[in-house]
Design a protein that fits this description.
The structure holds two protein chains of two kinds.
Chain A: E1 4-7, E2 10-13, E3 19-25, E4 33-38, E5 45-49, E6 53-54, E7 62-67, E8 70-75, E9 85-90, E10 102-106
Parallel strand pairs in A: 2-10
Antiparallel strand pairs in A: 1-3, 3-8, 4-5, 4-9, 5-6, 7-8, 9-10
Chain B: E1 3-7, E2 10-12, E3 18-25, E4 34-39, E5 45-51, E6 58-60, E7 68-73, E8 78-83, E9 92-98, E10 104-105, E11 109-113
Parallel strand pairs in B: 2-11
Antiparallel strand pairs in B: 1-3, 3-8, 4-5, 4-9, 5-6, 7-8, 9-10, 9-11
Classes of the chains: A mainly beta, B mainly beta.
Chain lengths: 107, 115
């Protein structure tokens, strides 16, 4: 099975900050990676697929990069509604493993 | 508007069974892969199972293989998860999600397994 490791697990930030979350796969997965946002008490929401393609309706302050085994989710100018938990998921093969999540909290 | 609505959750004793349903609207179910993902209280996301558009390809997490069965009825716009031999560790919020990239998610059905 492909292992997916996110870092950091917790990130404290302020409104307006730029932040990055890293996701590492245990093998080369090309660009078969997605990012999701989960607000407290809500279902996850797809942000990015194909490592860098923004889902329709997602603000342009979100971006994804990377290929192979290392990927990054970047949020420029953090907004109050962005404080949430973020997950990556490999879509290369089964089982479709998720990272353990990164909680972005208010500093 | 795309909607996925799960139902069938509840409290069950270890060893018991439950059948989750997911009613979809706003898109043509027959065109898309469907998935179940679960989240234990306070924990992260765990992929459970996926089924291709025509049910040709079915996949399960090792933790549920042999106990859970995913199925779909495209004519009824519905996805199902039959869960047998339930364990305490199966307690979670179960989400129905659509597509190969898990584009849309329901609000979840809560399954609690306890004696």
């Amino acid at each position: 099975d492909i292992q997916v490791t996110q870092s950091p697990s917790l990130l404290s930030a302020s409104v307006g900050d730029r932040l990055s979350i890293t996701c590492r796969a245990s093998q080369d997965i090309g660009t078969s990676l997605a990012w999701y946002q989960q607000l407290p008490g809500k279902a996850p929401k797809l942000l990015i697929y194909g490592a860098s393609t923004l889902q329709t309706g997602v603000p342009s302050r979100f971006s994804g990069s990377g290929a192979g085994a290392e990927f990054t989710l970047t949020i420029t100018s953090l907004q109050p509604e962005d404080f949430a938990t973020y997950y990556c998921q490999q879509l290369y093969n089964y089982p479709r493993t998720f990272g353990q999540g990164t909680k972005v909290e208010i500093k | 508007e795309v909607q996925l609505v799960e139902s069938g959750g509840g409290l069950v004793k270890p060893g018991g069974s439950l059948r989750l349903s997911c009613a979809v609207s706003g898109f043509t179910l027959s065109r898309f892969q469907m998935n179940w993902v679960r989240q234990a209280p306070g924990k992260g996301l765990e992929w459970v199972s996926s089924i291709s558009s025509t049910s040709t390809y079915i996949y399960y997490a090792a933790s549920v293989k042999g106990r859970f069965t995913i199925s779909r009825d495209n004519g009824k716009n519905s996805l199902y998860l039959q869960m047998n031999s339930l364990r305490v560790e199966d307690s979670a919020l179960y989400y129905c999600t659509s597509g190969g990239t898990f584009d849309f998610w329901g609000q979840g059905a809560l399954v609690s397994v306890s004696s």
